Design the sequence.
């Protein structure tokens, strides 16, 4: 299961390679370099935008590959966490079509609120809006409308490859190079009439195409007790993994065939 | 020269709910300003100005007095005018409308009783004046002349400061010169269009030059403005006026952009008839008659101190970002692109202030206050723009209430957010009461906040206010097979089973995929195919180069060979064979277009063969 070009991150259904420029895969970035301090503006020139250390294990290159589409099943803290490190590193983040994005939570995860552009209601011309945002921002978080025609998707993907940005889709995007999903999540800290939400332990699953074809699953504290994101140790979870997680619907495991 | 209007003077402005007196007063001042620009407004109904210049211009004090009286009479006001050397004397002269000849002020004042020093006049508003007048009367000094005859030194030693000031007034020496203020220079710029301009482009183009003139005028005085007011006047008298704010100086191009946005809104609807309004976006139909004038007025003019950027720690908007944001603004309007500013506040909505891109970023509520009573801890990842209605019930199905003493009627057991299926509550905390702005009836609110965790792994910030449950925010990471995800899965074109990558895994799409197989059986498959094929037909003409390449057949086949969807073959192969078609079939909708095109006729053929 490899993409059209070995190691390429371009969509296999892209126009013939060689005609358009799209980023070739470089060697896997050294984690220390990806996270290194940089001047504001232009979050690095590597082939991937940095992500929080705890999320690196989920992504094939330890970061968000430039020019790629990353889809998350539904908008939530995970989308914001994915954008956090790049924003802290100087990238601008556009958020289109998500009026309920919690900027406070985003800031707690590490996003720089001063480098966020919100377009709560992009309207029917959302592809143009997203293309414009991709020109200015390295990271665009988008919730597309329910049905996106393949033509619109291809055009946006072409824009994406030209601009070396990353499109983070909260929703369904059939051509996405990487898809993330929250398999289960459980909040801790709430009792029966006492306590408060303190941390959330979640099982995140990532898969996709090309390099990302291998399914990766990680248990994360998102957010942890200190507000940050940390890798959770399955042996140290506050509940039993084998117990049916609260978020899993019955019958989910019957998927063969 | 002093002009008084006894009506306005005696009226109590604070007891005038309609502001009618204030408006009349404003009209009087405007009328007087027409004769002399440097007017000091002393009190309501009293204004003063230096008469020498205007009197010479209008042909003498008498002529000037007559003109002002006539102007006031036109307004329906009844004013008296006094002329004398010095403000105090002129004020007294205005009581009976006298004109004291030059040099005659001392004689005029000498005849006045000392009680004028304590009268309701602005020059002697010293509170000690009443005592002084009573004392002077007891001493037998009945007129100002008697008082003025006393030696200055004796008055100062006997009556103190207040007495000395009164003595100066009595001698015809004013305590201070008139505090007139020159009117501010008119910094606005205007461009008139003759004949009226029906199209937007020339107006926008003129706005660019106009903004350059505005900036030149401001810069020549060392000033800058915080806001620019743009006023467009249509030929039929309608006017659209709006203030645009900016964090720096609005460049000429930025002003032109704002003029365009404003014109895109069209002229305001006429008050009398419902003439059709120009629809936003089409710059060709500014009706009726077009624009006759465009005026830019600098608002909130401040001294230009320049802008000092911090060495670090400050977020700069690069040109690239600004261009992108302004392009979106040009498409959707000024308020469509927002920059969030973190501020303070007790509710999740208050803590972030969205500010249109380009304006000064200031939070609505300051962040550096303690804000007791806010919900502490983890911030919610989703803050719903409008709180969602919900129902929270206990085990018995009764709505959960909170008493005035903040006691919960029963533990919440079920949460039903409108638009979503009810969920069992697995954990809850609260109530955290909040009584805010009780001194302001319009903004006061009493609410109790709860955090509720539900069985699907999500958590909610629920608020009980006025007996209603509202969900203000949500705490969750992502989809767990919510209706939205289900919908997305069902709506995805590749329903033919191209979800190989997510089979064998738990997750929302998995569930979505799990629901698809029924549609894959013979009858349903046709509809699924039809849905897959139709959009593909439509998209072919859009990419000319691609369809040509697809026609060769080699390219798509190659690209299809590299596609990771072999395991699907079995499923589809079987289904397709049942329909009497060869197994070679793309179906995957990211496949090359040419392949899809070859696949197109099949769904049309299949219904018959399947039946």
Sequence:
């Amino acid at each position: 299961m490899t993409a059209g070009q070995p190691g390429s991150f371009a969509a296999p259904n892209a126009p013939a390679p060689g005609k358009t420029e799209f980023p070739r895969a470089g060697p896997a970035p050294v984690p220390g370099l990806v996270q290194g301090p940089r001047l504001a503006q232009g979050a690095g020139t590597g082939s991937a935008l940095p992500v929080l250390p705890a999320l690196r294990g989920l992504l094939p290159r330890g970061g968000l590959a430039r020019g790629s589409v990353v889809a998350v099943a539904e908008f939530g803290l995970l989308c914001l966490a994915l954008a956090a490190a790049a924003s802290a590193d100087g990238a601008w983040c556009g958020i289109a079509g998500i009026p309920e994005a919690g900027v406070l939570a985003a800031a707690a995860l590490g996003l720089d609120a001063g480098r966020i552009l919100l377009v709560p209601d992009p309207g029917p011309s959302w592809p143009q809006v997203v293309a414009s945002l991709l020109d200015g921002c390295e990271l665009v978080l988008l919730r597309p409308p329910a049905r996106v025609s393949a033509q619109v998707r291809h055009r946006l993907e072409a824009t994406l490859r030209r601009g070396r940005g990353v499109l983070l889709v909260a929703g369904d995007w059939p051509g996405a190079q990487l898809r993330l999903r929250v398999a289960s999540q459980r909040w801790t800290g709430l009792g029966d009439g006492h306590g408060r939400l303190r941390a959330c332990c979640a099982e995140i699953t990532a898969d996709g195409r090309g390099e990302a074809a291998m399914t990766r699953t990680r248990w994360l504290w998102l957010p942890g007790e200190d507000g940050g994101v940390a890798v959770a140790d399955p042996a140290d979870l506050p509940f039993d993994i084998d117990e049916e997680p609260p978020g899993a619907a019955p019958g989910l495991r019957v998927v063969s065939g | 020269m002093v002009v008084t209007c006894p009506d306005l003077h005696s009226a109590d402005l604070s007891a005038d709910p309609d502001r009618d007196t204030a408006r009349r007063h404003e009209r009087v001042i405007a009328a007087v300003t027409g004769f002399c620009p440097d007017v000091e407004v002393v009190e309501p109904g009293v204004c003063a100005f230096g008469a020498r210049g205007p009197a010479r211009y209008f042909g003498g004090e008498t002529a000037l007095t007559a003109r002002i009286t006539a102007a006031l009479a036109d307004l329906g006001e009844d004013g008296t005018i006094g002329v004398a050397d010095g403000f105090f004397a002129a004020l007294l002269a205005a009581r009976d409308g006298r004109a004291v000849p030059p040099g005659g002020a001392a004689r005029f004042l000498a005849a006045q009783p000392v009680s004028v020093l304590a009268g309701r006049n602005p020059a002697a508003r010293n509170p000690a004046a009443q005592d002084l007048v009573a004392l002077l009367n007891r001493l037998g000094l009945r007129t100002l002349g008697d008082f003025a005859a006393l030696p200055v030194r004796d008055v100062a030693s006997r009556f103190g400061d207040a007495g000395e000031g009164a003595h100066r007034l009595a001698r015809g020496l004013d305590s201070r010169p008139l505090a007139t203020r020159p009117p501010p220079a008119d910094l606005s710029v205007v461009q008139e269009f003759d004949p009226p301009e029906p199209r937007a482009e020339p107006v926008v183009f003129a706005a660019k030059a106009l903004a350059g003139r505005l900036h030149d005028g401001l810069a020549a005085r060392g000033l800058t403005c915080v806001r620019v007011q743009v006023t467009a006047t249509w030929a039929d008298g309608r006017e659209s006026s709006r203030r645009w704010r900016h964090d720096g100086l609005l460049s000429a191009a930025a002003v032109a952009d704002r003029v365009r946005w404003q014109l895109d809104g069209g002229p305001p609807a006429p008050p009398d008839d419902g003439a059709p309004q120009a629809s936003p976006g089409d710059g060709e139909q500014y009706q009726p008659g077009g624009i006759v004038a465009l005026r830019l007025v600098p608002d909130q003019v401040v001294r230009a101190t320049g802008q000092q950027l911090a060495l670090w720690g400050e977020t700069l908007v690069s040109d690239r970002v600004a261009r992108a944001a302004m392009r979106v603004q040009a498409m959707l309007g000024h308020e469509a692109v927002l920059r969030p500013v973190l501020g303070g506040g007790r509710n999740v909505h208050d803590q972030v202030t969205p500010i249109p891109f380009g304006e000064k970023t200031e939070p609505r509520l300051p962040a550096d206050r303690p804000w007791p009573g806010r919900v502490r801890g983890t911030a919610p990842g989703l803050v719903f723009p409008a709180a969602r209605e919900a129902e929270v019930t206990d085990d018995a199905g009764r709505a959960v209430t909170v008493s005035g003493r903040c006691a919960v009627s029963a533990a919440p057991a079920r949460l039903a957010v409108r638009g979503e299926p009810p969920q069992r509550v697995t954990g809850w905390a609260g109530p955290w009461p909040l009584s805010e702005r009780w001194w302001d009836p319009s903004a006061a609110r009493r609410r109790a906040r709860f955090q509720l965790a539900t069985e699907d792994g999500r958590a909610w910030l629920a608020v009980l206010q006025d007996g209603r449950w509202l969900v203000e925010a949500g705490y969750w990471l992502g989809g767990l097979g919510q209706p939205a995800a289900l919908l997305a899965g069902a709506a995805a074109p590749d329903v033919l089973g191209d979800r190989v990558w997510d089979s064998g895994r738990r997750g929302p799409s998995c569930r979505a995929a799990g629901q698809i197989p029924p549609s894959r059986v013979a009858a349903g498959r046709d509809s699924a195919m039809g849905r897959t094929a139709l959009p593909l037909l439509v998209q072919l003409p859009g990419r000319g180069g691609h369809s040509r390449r697809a026609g060769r057949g080699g390219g798509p086949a190659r690209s299809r060979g590299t596609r990771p969807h072999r395991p699907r073959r079995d499923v589809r192969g079987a289904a397709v064979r049942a329909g009497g078609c060869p197994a070679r079939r793309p179906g995957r909708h990211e496949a090359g277009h040419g392949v899809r095109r070859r696949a197109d006729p099949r769904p049309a053929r299949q219904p018959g063969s399947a039946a």
The first strand of chain B starts at residue 2 and ends at 4.
